[in-house]
Amino acid sequence: MREVRWASEEGDGVEHLAFDTRADGFYVESAVVGQRYGRSYGLFYTVTCDPQWRVTHASLRIVGGGELELHGDGAGHWHDGHGRTLDAIEGCIDIDIAATPFTNTLPIRRLKLAQGERQPISVAYISTPDLGVTRVEQAYSCIELDREYRYEGIFRNFSANVNVDEDGLVIDYPTLFRRLSPPVR
What we know:
Elements: E1 2-8, E2 14-22, E3 25-36, E4 39-49, E5 55-62, E6 67-72, E7 78-80, E8 94-97, H1 105-111, E9 118-126, E10 133-144, E11 148-153, E12 158-164, E13 170-173, E14 177-179
Parallel strand pairs: 8-9
Antiparallel strand pairs: 1-2, 1-14, 2-3, 3-4, 4-5, 5-6, 6-7, 9-10, 10-11, 11-12, 12-13, 13-14
């Protein structure tokens, strides 16, 4: 089990995340306190991935607000916690939770990009604090293998180079997040 913390550079937010590598994949549990669009929120979330870093389950809960549960098969087919198929995100392998830099780890690890390689992807974007789910277009490029990647939010015309550690967890995401504490094992 490993724990990391990030601070939001956009406001007064902070996240505490526990990351666990298991025989059947990866498990994350996290709490985020933040502010977005002038609204303060608390978010608890869990993400489970298979050994290839494909999301198989995500559960999100806003303190005093909504809940969202997503189940994926790793091949881009999704359903919610009630078993309803989510056609709007069909074909998306990764999720992107707006409140956290953790979800950048998912495509960085899953795509296994070679240095200089760029890959556009479709992602299930989860906005916070409303927990709306939409399909968006993004791209990742490997600047320096296992150290620096370029994220492009094609859907919002935003890009940033992110530095990651040996597990692919973000260290620095300019203008959005910065790591507060060194890794704890």
